[in-house]
Design goal:
heterodimer, A: about 290 residues, alpha+beta, Alpha-Beta Plaits, 2 domains, five-stranded antiparallel beta sheet, four-stranded antiparallel beta sheet, elongated, B: about 120 residues, mainly alpha, two-stranded antiparallel sheet, 4 helices, 2 strands, about 5% strand, flat
């Protein structure tokens, strides 16, 4: 049956089949019991292991109809569905990673059936093995650095706010600010701006220092995009959003380094936030000197 | 293995910040398989689905205020620069990888052209 890309109304008769949703690839030894009871991306079908070559994939049968391109797009345009899918995907990966080294796959990696999945996975077995070796006994930690919440000194409004502004104020700056409240105001604005810029410079430098310090403990580090401050209003601007791949046995050392950074007087203006340990999502692809390409 | 925020118990575990942490990982990270599988219903291959999925998810995220793609330009420019450079590098590598993967596979030239045809279509709004 052939359907075209655009504008094809979903043909109900072709929606019967299941698709194989692949969550992750594990080294052999993933405990199926850890996956039992997870709802994954579909209610009613188990999250299971699909062996291929010397490895196993964590998969689930999902109704192809619900995972067709248009349908998926629609579903994931809904914030609640997006959140549910993302959390379900993550939950399966985290559960698998509790029992065996695990390579996460991005959300919505789908195949027409187990055999198609197996064929695709087997073709990449060598790459999986190399990356699995690299992340074995290592976890990802997320570190965010926020600008501190010191309030900027907001300039007071001018006394005579209604006075019309005159253009070309530059040359009249020499006039004493006592007699020109508008100019005093502008100077305060300028001062506040300079102060803010200095603080930003200092914050970025501090973030760089944090990054350098943590890379010393980590096997690898990667900068992620900063989150919008609106996301997390209780914090200031995000100066650094980074992920570090760290040997499991060096977790205490990492925490120690973070504590030290927090206590350091030169970093008093910033806040550090730690998340983790994560499955090494950010370190399974790219920038990989081990994986032969 | 679960994510937890160690230092700021104030930020709710199921709150939007945490969702952003998850989204940036499950949408944008992970090991990509240069697969050639299409969803039965629509004759679209995996990469196309992912591209569109990604775009629509980003749009969704933006609507919901989960907007890690843009921040206050006054400060974000520098904070972002390294991240974006790394990102670009990684995407270039990924594209090279995918292209190499396609060539390595035992696919016929026709099916390759077929797939990329769809990718191009997908990018055209």
């Amino acid at each position: 049956m052939k359907h075209t890309d655009s504008g094809s109304a979903a043909a109900p008769e072709s929606g019967q089949a299941d698709a194989t949703y692949v969550f992750a690839v594990c080294g052999r030894g993933c405990d199926p019991a850890a996956l039992a009871g997870l709802s994954g991306q579909a209610a009613g079908t188990p999250v299971r292991l699909l062996p291929f070559g010397s490895l196993e994939a964590v998969v689930q049968d999902v109704p192809a109809r619900a995972f067709g391109e248009e349908t998926l797009r629609e579903r994931l345009s809904d914030r609640a569905e997006l959140e549910q899918c993302a959390r379900a995907h993550h939950a399966v990966i985290a559960a698998a990673a509790d029992t065996a080294p695990t390579l996460p796959l991005p959300l919505a990696t789908l195949y027409r059936g187990d055999e198609r999945a197996r064929a695709a996975l087997r073709a990449d077995e060598g790459r999986f093995l190399a990356v699995l070796e690299r992340i074995a006994d290592r976890v990802e930690w997320g570190i965010k650095v926020y600008a501190g919440r010191r309030r900027p000194s907001t300039p007071a409004p001018p006394h005579q706010a209604s006075r019309p502004r005159t253009p070309g104020g530059r040359e009249s700056r020499a006039v004493g600010s006592a007699s020109r409240p508008g100019h005093a105001y502008l100077e305060r604005v300028r001062g506040a701006r300079d102060e803010r810029e200095q603080r930003q410079e200092a914050g970025l430098a501090a973030a760089d220092a944090v990054d350098r310090a943590l890379r010393k403990v980590a096997v690898a580090g990667r900068r992620l995009r900063s989150h919008d401050p609106a996301l997390n209003p209780e914090h200031g601007v995000q100066l650094l959003n980074a992920a570090y791949l760290v040997d499991q046995e060096r977790a205490a050392e990492l925490m120690g380094a973070i504590e030290q950074l927090r206590r350091s007087p030169e970093h008093r203006g910033i806040e550090l936030e730690v998340t983790g340990p994560w499955v090494p999502y950010s370190f399974v692809e790219g920038g990989d000197p081990v994986a032969g390409r | 293995m679960t994510e937890r925020t160690i230092t700021h118990p104030a930020s709710q575990p199921s709150g939007p910040a945490n969702l952003a942490d998850i989204l940036e990982r499950v949408l944008d990270k992970g090991i990509v398989i240069a697969g050639d599988i299409k969803i039965d219903l629509l004759d679209i291959e995996l990469l196309t689905i992912r591209l569109r999925l990604f775009v629509s998810s980003v749009e969704t995220a933006k609507k919901a205020g989960i907007d890690w793609w843009e921040t206050d330009p006054a400060l974000s420019t520098r904070a972002h620069r390294d991240a974006v450079d790394e990102e670009n590098q990684r995407l270039r590598e990924r594209v090279a990888e995918l292209e190499a993967g396609h060539e390595d596979r035992d696919d016929t030239a026709e099916s390759r052209n077929h797939r990329w045809h769809h990718v191009k279509e997908a990018r055209r709004p």
